[in-house]
């Protein structure tokens, strides 16, 4: 009997694959990084706050979290306190929501100007997952997931998308809490143990581990394999193309005594 592809045994019991979006399916994390930098570089400089904003701040305080949680965490790192505000605040208002909305405007301007093309290896892995009979879903902290999927021409692959808007409507806490991933599994009619979580951020990997998911895969887009493993990933790859053969094996139903 020929040997199974590397990691195939880890996918045998997996009935669904739950994908993060930014940094996993699409390189939109780069657009987010630039949008956050434009927001907070000027914001901190105008107030004379040190240290100045750096890319490390994105990974330390913002990456993978809902937008307003990222604003709160960055401000707290500089001991800045502003009113919470509301989703109706004008973008750029000196509130948590106003700053988050300004960042969102920056993101959409970049997305409209440059567009987005999905990672080729991730698309291959997605298609292999579907062809193997597994269900798929997107679980993203972004409130723009549907727009990004449409821009990347991936919207027709997913009937379940749990994004920041869905999480708010359902009263679910964002990553690193596991609730949004658990909710996606429930919408597919499955348990966390039936599902694999695919993540590139520490907060998302932690969500997968805290939710007791059947498999947690880290995609190292620069965070570092050691850090993703420490956060709870079972497997770390640099490109999901590495797992195409593994996920191509059909799911195996668990044996019952």
UniProtKB/TrEMBL annotation:
InterPro entries: Beta-PGM-like, HAD-like_sf, HAD-SF_hydro_IA, HAD_sf, PGP-like_dom2
Keyword Transcription regulation recorded: no
Names of required cofactors: Mg(2+)
A Pfam entry, by short name: Hydrolase
Highest taxon above the source species: Bacteria
Entry-linked PANTHER family: 6-PHOSPHOGLUCONATE PHOSPHATASE, HEXITOL PHOSPHATASE B
NCBIfam families the UniProt entry points to: HAD-SF-IA-v3
UniProt family annotation: Belongs to the HAD-like hydrolase superfamily. CbbY/CbbZ/Gph/YieH family.
Protein name in the entry: Haloacid dehalogenase
Natural source organism: Subtercola lobariae
């Amino acid at each position: 009997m020929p040997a199974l592809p590397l990691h195939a045994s880890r996918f045998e019991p997996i009935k669904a694959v739950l994908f993060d979006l930014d940094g996993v399916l699409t390189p939109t994390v780069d657009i987010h990084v630039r949008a956050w930098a434009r927001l907070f570089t000027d914001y901190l400089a105008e107030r004379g706050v040190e240290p100045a904003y750096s890319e490390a701040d994105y990974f330390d305080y913002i990456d993978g979290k809902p937008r307003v949680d990222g604003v709160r965490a960055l401000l707290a790192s500089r001991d800045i306190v502003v009113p919470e505000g509301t989703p109706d605040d004008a973008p750029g208002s000196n509130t948590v929501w106003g700053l988050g909305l300004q960042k969102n405007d920056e993101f959409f301007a970049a997305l409209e100007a440059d567009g987005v093309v999905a990672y080729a290896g991730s698309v291959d892995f997605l298609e292999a997952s579907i062809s193997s009979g597994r269900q798929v879903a997107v679980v993203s902290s972004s409130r723009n997931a549907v727009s990004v999927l449409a821009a990347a021409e991936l919207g027709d692959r997913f009937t379940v998308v749990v994004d920041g808007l869905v999480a708010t409507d359902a009263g679910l806490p964002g990553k690193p809490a596991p609730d949004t991933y658990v909710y996606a599994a429930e919408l597919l009619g499955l348990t966390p143990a039936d599902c694999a979580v695919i993540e590139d951020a520490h907060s998302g990997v932690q969500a997968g581990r805290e939710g007791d998911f059947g498999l947690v895969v880290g995609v190292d887009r620069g965070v570092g394999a050691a850090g993703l493993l420490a956060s709870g990933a079972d497997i770390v790859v640099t490109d999901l193309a590495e797992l195409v053969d593994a996920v191509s094996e059909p799911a195996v139903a668990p044996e019952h005594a």
